[in-house]
Amino acid sequence: MIALWAIASAVIGFGYSQWAVGNGLEVPISTPTLGISISIIAIVLLVMVVPIWKYKRNLTKPSAVKLIPVNPFYAVRVLLLAKAAAITSAIFLGWHVGVLVKQFTAPVVVADATTLNISAASTSVFLLVVAFVVEQICKLPNDKNKDV
Prior knowledge:
Shape: elongated
Strand content: under 5%
Helix content: over 70%
Number of domains: 1
Mean pLDDT: 89
Order of helices and strands: HHHHH
Largest sheet: none
Low-confidence stretches: none
Radius of gyration: 20 Å
Number of helices: 5
Structural class: mainly alpha
């Protein structure tokens, strides 16, 4: 599903860039603040998952370690934030890939414009990886007592 969002936004990014250049406009260029914002969101997401990760890590240890349970509503919120971040970063990644394809197939390649779009695409990949890791951390452990 995430790949479909990325592919659709890549097609839209390339199509818009093609349309813009054909109508005398410039190719869209991301600002440096986009990469900074995406990185901050990824770091905040990593900080938010730390209590869940500690709890899951202590589940596998002997009972000598006192388990402090995590609020399940907090865990669901972190999981939903990770899902939303994955979808959003896939859309940003697809858009930037589409725009970069247009930029690299143009007769003249502007280095500053491609650098900003490459950095935005790479931070989108970073957020996507962080979101997938957070989703895996928020997964429930397998139930060992299946009495069904």
